[in-house]
Design brief:
It is a single chain. By secondary structure, the protein is α+β, with helices and mostly antiparallel strands. The protein has two domains: about 80 residues, no CATH class; about 60 residues, Multidrug-efflux Transporter Regulator, Chain: A, Domain 2, CATH 1.10.1660. About 35% of the residues lie in helices and about 15% in strands. It has seven helices and five strands, in the order H-H-H-E-E-E-H-H-E-E-H-H. Helix 4 crosses helix 5.
Length: about 180
């Protein structure tokens, strides 16, 4: 483990030259200005706080498995990171090396909506109470079918009905839509 420096004693330093994205350099400059601290001190404190090669959690966070949120208040972005990819071919002793950019799938992507809806789902789609939906369906105002005492609705038919002009809706659905 790291040994903290004694009070008043400066730890030994080592030169570090890195190229970082221009936006990150601007953020570092701004943070150093706002905090009235040298960039060297900020970088050193960030490394001390977030980089622990002996901790699997720290390494997982640095590898991109968990977001890093620091004193600067933003999550580190790996959206534009390039990864080296090595491909093994069928030919012996040959490797192909290149770069590829990976994008994670959207975690909050909505699931594909069902084509046949229950009364509750149809009411949610139309943003009305289920009781109103059932009454309109029973009166023949909405395109739907009653199966074994429960209403079922075609999503496409409901959206088509909703998009139709009001006077066409007042005339009621076609006999096929009921």
């Amino acid at each position: 483990m790291r040994q903290p420096a004694q009070r008043g004693e400066r730890p030994p330093t080592e030169a570090l030259f890195v190229r970082i994205p221009a936006e990150h350099a601007r953020r570092l400059d701004r943070a150093a200005f706002e905090l009235r601290r040298p960039k060297q001190a900020l970088v050193s404190e960030l490394v001390e706080r977030y980089v622990d090669p002996d901790s699997p959690a720290s390494l997982a966070a640095l590898a991109g498995d968990a977001p890093l949120r620091g004193a600067l208040g933003y999550a580190s972005s790996r959206a534009h990171a390039r990864r080296r990819v090595t491909v093994e071919t069928l030919e012996p002793d040959t490797l192909v090396v290149g770069h590829h950019s990976f994008r994670p799938s959207a975690p909050d992507a909505p699931a594909q909506a069902p084509e046949v809806l229950t009364a509750e789902q149809a009411a949610e789609l139309l943003q009305v109470q289920p009781s109103l939906l059932a009454r309109l369906a029973a009166q023949g105002e909405l395109p739907g079918r009653e199966l074994a005492g429960q209403w079922r609705f075609s999503r496409e038919a409901l959206l088509h009905w909703l998009a139709a002009p009001a006077k066409a809706r007042r005339a009621g659905p076609a006999k096929d839509d009921r």
